[in-house]
Design goal:
Length: 135
């Protein structure tokens, strides 16, 4: 079942045209990702230092279906899927909440787990593996 994150669009999220700046969709997606991990019980302040791993984004894709503006209420779903023993994808759907809920964007990111010391691919830490399995 996807994780759901709710948020309001604020002035700093938007560009001169008054709509969410394209790169800020990725920032909001990352907020949702962090919230999902925290809700799953991961200690975000020490996750990387405790596990000796980092999980950079190797690829991202976005579809912008309708504009979001300041004041819009937003629901973002996060759905993780394991790709390999050391990589996974996150699919995000951005819904504008209102009298009629509308899908506003789709974001997809691919993450790879690597050892922080060697930068070589590394299996998922146990807590991350558990989150991916249950996500």
């Amino acid at each position: 079942m996807p994780f759901c994150y709710t948020r309001t669009i604020h002035f700093p999220d938007t560009d001169a045209a008054g709509v969410v700046f394209f790169a800020n969709y990725l920032a909001i997606a990352h907020e949702a990702y962090e919230e999902a991990l925290g809700t799953a019980g991961m200690k975000l302040h020490s996750f990387f230092s405790d596990t000796g791993t980092v999980v950079p984004i190797a690829k991202s894709e976005a579809e912008y279906l309708r504009p979001l503006v300041c004041g819009d209420k937003l629901r973002v779903t996060v759905t993780p899927t394991v790709l390999t023993p050391h990589s996974f994808e996150l699919r995000y759907e951005f819904f504008r909440i209102g009298p009629t809920e509308k899908l506003a964007a789709r974001i997809r990111t691919e993450h790879v787990c690597i050892a922080s010391a060697t930068r070589e691919r590394h299996p998922f830490p146990a807590t991350l593996a558990e989150w991916l399995k249950n996500g």
